[in-house]
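Technical note accompanying the year-one report. For the benefit of new consortium partners, we illustrate the data format agreed upon in the data management plan: each record pairs a sequence with a structure-token string. No post-processing was applied to the example shown here.
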Amino acid sequence: MTNPYAAGAAGRCPSCGEGCLFEGFLKVAPQCEACGFDLKAADSGDGPAVFVILIGGFLVAFGAVFTQIAFEPPVWLQLIVWLPLTVIVCAGLLRPFKGLMIAAQFTNKAREAGRDDV
């Protein structure tokens, strides 16, 4: 059986691990091309963005503060180095985290609450 978390992080279907999870950079495919699993109900919301901001922000802020204390570079150099790095780190982490959140929904059989659930 496929590990849904590994498949989600790799951008694969959490059900079969074969088909693509995404149509574009972050747009979830309507269904798996390999097994036909319905991915339309998968909605990660703002969860991946929150984790990416917290993790990426910590890494970049720690690096910037450490660099400032250790080497005391000018502010313009700090901005030239750390602003693009912030964008690269956040963009690089966003897709795997979105895949992980969708895989977590699949694993825990999460669904929207209905009238009977309240």
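Partners are asked to follow this layout when depositing records. Residues 4-110 form one domain.
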